[in-house]
Specification:
about 30% helix; two-stranded antiparallel ribbon; 4 helices; 3-stranded antiparallel sheet; alpha+beta
């Protein structure tokens, strides 16, 4: 058996609360009540505050692989993907600024001593 994704989302913002993922093999399709009882993000909320969509197995596979995020448009209940901007370079990772400040303070102190001598 193959089962597509069920994506639960906040009806006000479209933010994804739970993506059940795709399943295949010896699996059983879950009910809405089961999902609500299992997923904390759902059972802690008022039921009227979220909704869900169901996708076919492998539906939008390429989009999921290429995206850096997705949401559900609350008005249309259609999925919307965000993709990395090819014109935006990858972020440059640095050590914490507090460490850099400490190192700079140490360098300034050493230079001050050298100048004073």
């Amino acid at each position: 058996m193959i089962i597509g994704r069920r994506i639960y989302f906040d009806i006000a913002t479209g933010s994804v609360l739970v993506d059940t993922g795709e399943r295949s093999g010896n699996v059983v399709e879950t009910t809405l009540d089961y999902d609500i009882s299992v997923y904390k993000a759902l059972n802690e909320r008022v039921r009227e505050s979220y909704d869900y969509i169901e996708l076919e197995y492998r539906q939008y596979d390429e989009s999921f692989a290429a995206c850096n995020g997705y949401r559900i448009n609350p008005k249309t209940k259609k999925i919307e993907f965000s993709y990395p901007d090819p014109n935006q370079p990858e972020p440059v990772y640095r050590k914490p600024l507090s460490e850099e400040v400490d190192e700079l303070k140490q360098s300034v102190a050493e230079l001050t001593i050298m100048i004073a001598q």
